TrEMBL record:
<dbReference type="InterPro" id="IPR024747">
    <property type="entry name" value="Pyridox_Oxase-rel"/>
</dbReference>
<dbReference type="Pfam" id="PF12900">
    <property type="entry name" value="Pyridox_ox_2"/>
</dbReference>
<keyword id="KW-0560">Oxidoreductase</keyword>
<dbReference type="InterPro" id="IPR012349">
    <property type="entry name" value="Split_barrel_FMN-bd"/>
</dbReference>
<dbReference type="GO" id="GO:0004733">
    <property type="term" value="F:pyridoxamine phosphate oxidase activity"/>
</dbReference>
<protein>
    <submittedName>
        <fullName>Pyridoxamine 5'-phosphate oxidase</fullName>
        <ecNumber>1.4.3.5</ecNumber>
    </submittedName>
</protein>
Amino acid sequence: MSDRLPIDAATRIRREPHRQVDDRAVLDAILDEALIAHVSVVRDGAPLVLPFACARDADSILLHGSTGSGLLRLASGAPVCVAVTHLDGLVFARTTFDSSMRYRSAVVHGTATVVSAAEKEAALRLLSDHLFPGRNEELRASTPKELAATTVLRVALDRVSVKVAAGPPEVDPDDVEPRSVWAGVVPMAVIAGQPLAAPDVPAGVEVPASVRRALERASNDRH
């Protein structure tokens, strides 16, 4: 894929177009930070949106779910819209009209395809390493029954809108609000708390490297 994202009628941003970003590296960073994607399909003529665990795999995004999921069966081979958003801050402007948020978002348009049985285990390992970095090396391999109960969908990243809102509040030159009214940005980020061991973990069992990596990732992802 090119280092620039193509823009067409579906991916062109019309509201605040100056915030549209066509840099592929920005898209990759948004998706590589994401743990959840919201997937939209049409069921019986009505829209349906559900969250899925996700991970980027080169030029596609992987979506993880159970074979029992009705949405997964519905989405297989169907047009879908996949959205990822990171909230980076709340913008306190001097008017409610100008108050807003700072965020990075990606919207993927495409057709969801089921990852084949031959590729499923590798796809699940990639998803696991993204969600739980290093955990694969600490656990047994998935059983055939577990693999059969899991579905992974793939959506290509060839039609994507990326929008980024950053920086201080925008100031309208005609704004008459006094500068004595505070304005600025309150940064927002997802943070990790202290690990909570399951009730059946014996005393003295150390927190594994995979958990420590997840804690480090949450710390490094703060903006």
